[in-house]
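Researcher: Let's try something more involved. This one mixes different molecule types, so please make sure each is placed in the same coordinate frame as the others.
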Amino acid sequence: MVERLKGNARKSSLEATRLPVKVLVTGGAGYIGSTTAKALEQAGHTPVILDSLVSGPRVFVKDRIFYEGDIADRALLRRIVEEHPDIYCTIHMAARVVVPESVEKPFEYYRDNVCKSLDLFDELVRLGKPQVVFSSSASLYAMVKDFEVDEGSPLDPTSPYARTKRMMEMVLEDMAAATALRAIILRYFNPIGSDLDIESGVHVPEPSHILGQLVMAAQGLKDSFTITGAEHPTRDGTGIRDYIHVWDLARAHVVAVERFDEVLSSVGALSTVINLGTGDGITVREFVQVFQKVYGKRIPVREAPPRPGDAVGAFANVDKARNVLGWRASLTIEDAIASALAWGRKRKDVLGYE
Ligand SMILES: NC(=O)c1ccc[n+]([C@@H]2O[C@H](COP(=O)([O-])OP(=O)(O)OC[C@H]3O[C@@H](n4cnc5c(N)ncnc54)[C@H](O)[C@@H]3O)[C@@H](O)[C@H]2O)c1
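Model: All components are placed in one shared frame. Result:
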């Protein structure tokens, strides 16, 4: 991570930014975007959603201010800022997000996540809206021996998806050095769960991650749960991850917006990277145990060889999130599992599909 020191770091505008502000949320119809929009509202702020609905469902937008369109549509961006000149900051979450699909469709991923984000950032700077909070990913990290990674740990993005995220981190660092753009780059670990009122959650028809698969098995939509890869160099041979409740993740964005200038001042940089995780690693086998405890029944479990590209995994060192952002995760894996099970029971009514 490159942090350029800035001698005349801007004075903190903490007091000012804790006032209610308007925040452009690209991808605000998505899983994390809609939860973040809600967390912003609960903190008194107003999200303005920009989403093409390429994957996010319309119903997640609710009655929020909404522009249906593409992040690279410069005319639309100009209209949004004209109609909301008081936008304080942009949270850029819109992206294609499916790792195996990125292997099959690299053009679409580089075009949408890289080229379109470039247009978005350039237009935001032109429009005098240079403050950006960016959704990056822990999938950038290389495997390290004890699995704990901090923001300076070695990177090895192994899929086209992860590479698009790394490219945009570099773009943000370079644009911050050369233009008015300022960026807080958040590397999410493994978001799980639903918002606390069970109004939104994972929306893809067949979620590939562990909790989605377990919920499907619990609902009888799958006959068992398959552990892919049981010979990794972890304490029980299965992959290790740092699962963070999506509501905790959403709250971190609110803090990043409210303390935007203060965060960059405190690190003396024009852009900075912050890990968002719980700081605890849990293996797949351990996760299945916790799931069964919360669910109250056993799930048939099978084992299979690892899928190509399956990572052993990592968990977050969260010192920077605590010290610089002043945020830490407060909800548990049990909370996230309970909310995911509740969302699993409700989502057909909300989305119209299982
Ligand atoms: N879910 C995870 O496990 C995870 C982990 C790390 C990082 N992230 C990042 O978090 C962000 C949100 O992910 P999510 O899981 O909520 O995914 P999601 O698919 O639910 O949300 C993405 C949203 O972006 C919209 N979108 C995509 N391309 C667009 C474009 N060109 N213009 C306008 N809107 C567009 C989609 O319609 C969707 O609503 C993404 O940037 C993703 O890379 C997610």
